[in-house]
Specification:
Blueprint (H helix, E strand, L loop, with lengths): L1 H24 L7 H32 L7 H10 L6 H16 L6 H30 L1
Organism: Desulfosarcina alkanivorans
Protein name: DUF86 domain-containing protein
């Protein structure tokens, strides 16, 4: 479990850096190449942290809690019931956005993706402290 938490912390740090930088830039139609590169890093880091949390950490907690694996939605709903996340609804949107990031090939929708990532990064980052607190019961 410590390995997953270390990976979670590293991914959180780099996403926090990118989010802070891109929140200052803001989304506009005239982003420079450097600013676009910053937003591309943000979206990749957002997708990575969401994968770590939903695909690894939530699954790991389900195994430790002797829960059936079920669907991604089941995992997210159980995380909300356990108090690990504030809103299952936010995490369903995070997961859908992550999928959109992974399969996005149209440049005309990239700006709406950037805006959504800026909007959903705070709930994603806020879940990390709760995840760490929840994991402490297994690290003793």
């Amino acid at each position: 479990m410590q390995k997953e938490l270390d990976e979670l912390n590293k991914a959180t740090d780099v996403l926090t850096y990118s989010y802070t930088k891109c929140a200052k830039i803001g989304v506009s139609a005239d982003l420079s190449e450097e600013e676009l590169e910053s937003f591309e890093a943000l979206t990749g880091r957002f997708a990575r942290l969401s994968d770590i949390i939903i695909q690894k950490v939530f699954r790991y907690f389900d195994v430790l809690d002797l829960e059936n694996s079920g669907t991604v939605r089941d995992r997210i709903n159980r995380a909300e019931k356990k108090g690990i996340i504030e809103s299952a609804e936010d995490f369903i949107h995070i997961r859908l956005l992550r999928n959109e990031i992974a399969h996005e090939y149209k440049s005309d929708t990239i700006y709406s993706i950037f805006e959504s990532v800026l909007e959903l990064t705070p709930p994603l980052l806020n879940s990390v402290e709760k995840i760490i607190s929840y994991s402490e019961r297994y690290l003793k």
